[in-house]
Amino acid sequence: MQLADTVVTRPALWLLGHGVAASPSPAMQNAALRARGLDWEYAIRDVSAAELPDALRALRDGVARGANVTIPHKRAVAEACDELVGDALLTGAVNTVTVGEGGRLVGDNTDALGLEGALKTLGLWPDAALAVVVLGAGGAAAAAALALSRAAEAFSDPSVSQVVIPEIFLVARRPDAAGKLLTSRPHVPGLRTAAWSPDAVAAALHSGMSSVLINATPAPLADLPIDVAALPDDCIVVDLRYRPRPVDLVAAAQARGLRAADGLEMLLHQGMLSFERWTGLEPPWDAARQALRDAVAAP
Q: First vs last Cα of the chain: how many Å apart?
């Protein structure tokens, strides 16, 4: 066979989304693959809703071994998968697809576990009964609410075998969107809604022994119902955005002396959980984290 007739195909992984050309995920995942000695390639496949079925058929045909899924396709992919596992069963959204035998698509969701892992790594995982405010009513908000609901284990009082369930307030511009998310998440105890206003947010956060504020919207601080000066002194502030840097809400919270973080560490954790599902290997955390930081720092 002539060399020109030989087609060498590297095992592929994809990021399925639309309008995601600036994502730093390829830098992170390709660094992780190299660190584990895998000659695979992770690449963005930008597809519209109309193009998504073709991409999923290509996955079934073995063109790629798996994919991350991001906006706006998480729910559509969940409906198309042959099997849902893990948090995808709870959220009805998929951010990780693994191609199984016979082209079966297995959907998982690593967002909630990624947020939990990030907060624990950063020393921000709450350790007292608390009030949580989640800004937003989309998939990121659902994952954040699910993650923080699991913090209840840390609030157990062994002497009385009692678990204090955190109150989790959804705050969205459109009350109907928050209400819809509320009714579709029976697996998140203590979930309720609050008004999109600085007074309502402050009141909700002051209702617990400690508090967590999570921005799960793409909006900048100027468009959010937040008065940073009115936040509780012990409030943990998390903004799931990681660009532009520094993230304005995080900078304002830190300037006020609050503990705060942006979404970069969460992106690392959810991505490395996906990596583990695709490869069966322990993620190379340091290599992936450095590549991710370099990618978002680049102009």
A: 45
Two tokens at 156?
Answer: 């157990």
Tell me the average confidence (pLDDT) per consecutive run of 10 residues in the chain, 299 residues long. 47 96 97 98 98 97 97 94 95 94 97 96 87 92 90 54 70 83 74 93 90 96 97 96 96 98 98 98 98 91
d(CA 257, CA 8): 55
pLDDT of residue 210: 86
Per the residue annotation, which of 74, 185, 241, 269 is the catalytic one?
74
Question: The whole model's pTM is what?
Answer: 0.91
- At 43, give phi and psi (nearest 5°): -140, 155
Burial annotation 92-124 (CB, 10 A radius, 16+ → b, else e): bbbbbbbbeeeeebbbbbbbbbbbbbbbebeeb
- Nearest Cα residue to 202 out of 234, 225, 177: 225
Helices (H), 184-263: 198-205, 248-255
Active site residue 74: yes
Alpha carbon distances (Å) from 247 to 152, 206, 262:
28, 24, 7
Separation of alpha carbons 162 and 259, rounded Å: 28
Question: How far from 104 is each of 93, 131, 199, 200, CA to CA, in Å?
Answer: 17, 41, 49, 46
